[in-house]
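#struct-help
A.M.: can someone run this one for me? Single chain, 227 residues.
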Amino acid sequence: MDDSSITAPAPASTSVPPGLAPFIHLCDALVVADKPSGLLSVPGRGPERADCLAARVQAVLPDARVVHRLDMSTSGLMLMARGAQAQRVVSRAFEQRRVDKRYVAVVQGLVRDDVGEIDLPLIVDWPNRPRQCIDHVVGKPSLTRWQVLLRDVERQRTRLALQPITGRSHQLRVHLWAIGHPIFGDDLYAPPQVCAAEPRLLLHAHRLAIDHPVTGERLSFVCDVPF
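D.P.: on it. Structure tokens below:
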């Protein structure tokens, strides 16, 4: 899996004051922001869950529209489209899997092979929502490719680069748990001692590449891993 660095083009000029939203890229059609761990992507139920990345971006850019989400516990690159037409084009790109997403995670144990993939069908675990589960009968096809970045023998943990080919809810978290390497800080799938070992989920949306919805130019964005 090629994880080589590509420098993102400079954002278009904007009058947005600095510090109001964690922008990585801003132009007439796209917004790419760095979502912190612990912040919702979109509003939840009730006023106490109204604060989210989408609301913060829309407070500055009212035309910004959601096209995908990250789990609340996951940090990193989240893309929004500006206006209805851009939203349709970008949403179609996600549906057709023309958006390249790369993540970094730190998992329990030493992953044996250097590269591999996890092909396990997923579906919501209705009695235990929001958890997802593996179901070979009614689960939706789900594929994750992974590559070892670093093995920490002393601490018995592995840093992985992850490429989700499909975009199922909790896909990376469930897939890694299923092969015996849960992500540190995962309060839904990791054993208690693995969850408690870190103050946050060690999963970060590190890279994202997409065709610009107007020009067709391939754009690639990088967000430093905070752990």
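A.M.: thanks! Residues 103 and 123 are 21 Å apart (CA to CA).
D.P.: also worth noting: The first helix runs from residue 53 to 60.
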